[in-house]
Design brief:
Elements (H helix, E strand, L loop, with lengths): L1 E2 L4 E4 L4 H9 L4 E4 L12 H10 L3 E4 L9 H13 L4 E4 L4 H13 L5 H11 L4 H9 L9
Parallel strand pairs: 2-5, 3-4, 3-5
Antiparallel strand pairs: 1-2
Amino acid sequence: MKKVSDKLSIAPQVIADDISHAAANGFAAIINNRPDNEEAGQPSAGENRMVAEREGLCYSHIPVVPGQVKEWQVRAFQKALAEARGPVLAHCKTGARSTTLYVIGEVLDGRMSKEEVALLGQRLGFDLSGVVKWLDAHGHQSVQQP
């Protein structure tokens, strides 16, 4: 698990024990960014939702196919994060897609510049160059923080 911000941590694929551990450690919500059946043996969103709800956690499933991020997915991720009443654990296969959704949203809303993306990626151990390419391809210019 890696802490991205005060409210967001990211992780690779979670299983029932991980969800119970997250609840015991004060997380309020889980965001799953993996499509079901992406890999053999992966728990389904429905299975993990049942565990999360049993543990008292909110659960969002916003599946993202690698390399195919859409702006609506970014906005759905932001909404789930904003509505959570405490820390959020977002996951996918490695954590990279969850981080990508978060970072694109931060840049789109002016809380982060494109120039800061690589630094965050280095801190978390992810190559986030795809975020800058996505922003460039979708016509989003760098927004400097005040």
